[in-house]
């Protein structure tokens, strides 16, 4: 029996360094029947980078900036372009473990309409935080992790941000599966300074639930935030972060070579 096609939906604009990371994550996925749908409202042509993918695994749509569309509207364009039976959000600046699609599809094929991760890892690209990822949770599921059946009746609101939170909530009228802490290794949310959200949005993940608040208070008593239990990672989470760090080193090396070769 052939596996269902999964459409990975990316919206991007002038961030080729992050797109390269997301493309490599896509290439490593161990779910064979997949496509990457890229909606681009930037000025940088990503065609050379996307040419690394088989033609039947990529759809690239360049959108003019006039009028400038909201992030929600651009995400809806990606939904319209998708050909898969299932869709999942594939943001350009986050990192995905090779098992991400396979694990979420395992649950989707049990009859769920949408599958989300409640827990993810978070990485802050700041000097004192760079080597200290932490585990975060969102009670109703991290919006950017959603995988769902293709459904014409559910769309993103025409908003500049929080559009994926509203979209996630619209799926709660259907059959939704939340995956637990053991799957946090599948997804790393990355702060790099050009995110839709500010740094405080990511830091608040350390105390956005009762246990997190207790951990935050304990860390303050001990005199260092690193005592927060969110920094105590499992073996799978540490292995995932090691792979992520290796990817980042490759990207930095490639960027240095490009700078050296540029006139």
Features:
single chain; alpha/beta; 263 residues; Spore Coat Polysaccharide Biosynthesis Protein SpsA, Chain A; 8 helices; seven-stranded mixed beta sheet; 11 strands
What can you tell me about this protein's structure?
By secondary structure, this protein is an alpha/beta fold. It has one domain: Spore Coat Polysaccharide Biosynthesis Protein SpsA, Chain A. A 7-stranded mixed β-sheet has the order 3-2-1-4-9-6-10, with helices on both faces. A 4-stranded mixed β-sheet has the order 5-11-7-8. The chain has 8 helices and 11 strands. The longest helix is centred in the last third of the chain and has 27 residues, at 235-261. The relative contact order is 0.15. The protein is 34% helix and 19% strand.
CATH homologous superfamily heading: Spore Coat Polysaccharide Biosynthesis Protein SpsA, Chain A
| Count of DSSP strands | 11
- Total domain count: 1
User: So, CATH architecture?
Assistant: Alpha-Beta Complex
Radius of gyration computed on alpha carbons? 18 Å
Order of strands across the widest beta sheet? 3-2-1-4-9-6-10
Which CATH top level class fits? Answer: Alpha Beta
For the termini, the CA-CA separation is 53 Å
**What best-fitting shape do the alpha-carbon axes yield?**
globular
Total of helices: 8
Percentage of residues in strands:
15-25%
Taking pLDDT < 50 over at least 5 consecutive residues as the criterion, the unreliable ranges are: none
